Amino acid sequence: MISFIDLKKEYQLLCKELDPLIRNILENGFFVLGNEVEEFEEEFSQYIGVKKSIGVNSGSDALFLAIKSLKIGIGDEIITVSHTFISTVDAIVRNGAKPVFVDIDPETYCMDVSKIEKNINKNTKAILTVHLYGHPVDLDPLRELANKYGLFLIEDACQAHGAEYNGDKVGGVGDIGCFSFYPTKNLGAYGDGGMIVTNNHELAVKLKMLRNYGQTEKYYHDFIGINSRLDELQAAILRVKLKHLDSWNNRRRNIAKIYDELLLDCDLILPIEQSYAKHVYHLYVIRNKKREILKNKLLREDIQTQIHYPIPVHKQKSYSVLKSNYNLPVTDKICSEILSLPNHPWLTDEQIIHVSEMITNAIG
Ligand SMILES: *Cc1c(COP(=O)(O)O)cnc(C)c1O
User: Fold this and answer.
1) Which of 5, 155, 170, 182 to mutate to test the pocket of ligand 1 (most atoms within 8 A of CB)?
2) pLDDT at residue 325 tops 90
3) The pTM is what?
């Protein structure tokens, strides 16, 4: 069996280091907003190259609170993509704002920057862009547009820990960046977790309050916040894993390179890496018109694949209320063709060669 992800293997490799740390926290009896979270926030800031990081409960909460901290709500619009995980868009709607979808680039599957300007109007407050699959979006033109029209630039970097845009780590380029530590992400906790990053000191102070009931000091509340905190156990685990992130990302890049070479002559569209990009291959996504047949053939060979994502957000039942006629031809087209292959740091070269052979046999 070649599994899509293998977190048991990861724990086997880390348990010697993790077990005493976890035990120590349990024995100390301090679990929420303590030293581990503070240290991890500091280390994560250094890693991304930003001034401030704020640990929260999940990537979804990171996005929700980021938008909230910018005072974007009812009557406002945020430009984003439909080809993403649902929670990018949920974060906009949960704040009362309206998502405006633009199509994606057919090569990177990220936001098509040329489609943004004609969707900007007086209600537009922000661009929420997604570094999908671990490939950075083309950020310079986005920044220019945001500056020209006075919009905030928010980065959903939930799939792109360590990815770089012209040498800068993504998440730290816009006004606010959001990360998820869901277990299967490139940097994952053993439970839920998330991080908001920013270079804006005022926003950071506000975000720290927002994640903790709008509290300035215990039982003194300046505004209504929520309970969304990274806990000490997860922070301690993430501190250990952060030290491995670069080598794990390098292994993912290495695996992608092997796939690239072995699948070159197949009837497939392979992922690309733009010249401005350092791709961290959260997902290695190929395209083929007979995607379903290929997926089933691989499953018969005990090879797990997944689809990210089969239905774009604008066609989800939960978004039928929007009732807008979106013209998103690239998004609509690729959803029926994409397939994510196993790509995690614990795959062996032999396994990747095997997967590639089975794909070659299946589609020629
Ligand atoms: C995982 C993910 C999220 C949500 O993160 P959670 O921690 O699961 O809430 C948001 N956006 C994208 C693109 C993601 O991949």
Assistant:
1) 182
2) no
3) 0.98
